[in-house]
Amino acid sequence: MPLGHGALEIGERRRLGHSLRERRYDRAWVLPNSFKSALIPFFANIPHRTGWRGEMRYGLLNDARVLDKDAWPLMVERYVALAYDKGVMRTAKDLPQPLLWPQLQVSEGEKSLMCSDFSLSSERPLIGFCPGAEFGPAKRWPHYHYAELAKQLINEGYQVVLFGSAKDHEAGNEILAALNSEQQAWCRNLAGETQLEQAVILIAACKAIVTNDSGLMHVAAALDRPLVALYGPSSPDFTPPLSHKARVIRLITGYHKVRKGDTAQGYHQSLIDITPQRVLEELHSLLSEEGV
């Protein structure tokens, strides 16, 4: 959507909603809990608008559900529950099991072409890093740990590709700056350089992914890529990577509502304490299982 992340921009949302009226949609499911996320379906005059009540969205939603967080502990369960009529599913135990996990598929031809378009060498297998995360560095594994891991992987014969949005580009440059010139030749910072569809295809081309708790983590899981997910204050109990090929590393328990880290650089101590060697060991184990 042509809207800035987090921006209300009510006029633009009204314009976009009005432009959708001619498509005569019957139903909208509003997954985020924010007030602004319910505006476009309302302005589009979509007759049935379903979502959790969230930020007092009376009127905007005409099928507003009251969330019992204990009954629906996982985000994926909360979203699936909205697909059923109100009252049919009272707890997560009522949902059909197993839940279907999101899946993305990319052809070998698409991967080969996209790697060529971004001048990625076919001489070395790709390992992807997703060093960004929402709410700043508090949810990020430190850039110097990513850099140390990149050095070891490059020395083992891999090339490293950094993925993310434009706001993650600086973090990628910090990783690059910690490498020597020979190592930099095998590490590409594509954060902010790709469209989402391009990033999806390139992630599919990677042998494995190392990632913070981020949207691209879920993309890698849906692509069935082996991945090591690094968690700090946010909890994998709520939004885990939905993949049997995912390894989660977290050194603390519970949910910590932290938006600022513990150090001058903003990193959370629990993420600082995850060593590159620990991540490399998990990565080696995953790659071995894949026959790499």
Automatic annotation (TrEMBL):
It comes from the Bacteria. GO terms for molecular function: ADP-heptose-lipopolysaccharide heptosyltransferase activity. It catalyses: an L-alpha-D-Hep-(1->5)-[alpha-Kdo-(2->4)]-alpha-Kdo-(2->6)-lipid A + ADP-L-glycero-beta-D-manno-heptose = an L-alpha-D-Hep-(1->3)-L-alpha-D-Hep-(1->5)-[alpha-Kdo-(2->4)]-alpha-Kdo-(2->6)-lipid A + ADP + H(+). InterPro entries: Glyco_trans_9 (IPR002201), LPS_LOS_Heptosyltrfase (IPR051199), RfaF (IPR011910). GO terms for cellular component: cytosol. Its EC number is 2.4.99.24. Keywords: Glycosyltransferase, Transferase. CDD domains: GT9_LPS_heptosyltransferase (cd03789). One of its GO terms (biological process) is lipopolysaccharide core region biosynthetic process. Belongs to the glycosyltransferase 9 family. This is lipopolysaccharide heptosyltransferase II. The gene is waaF.
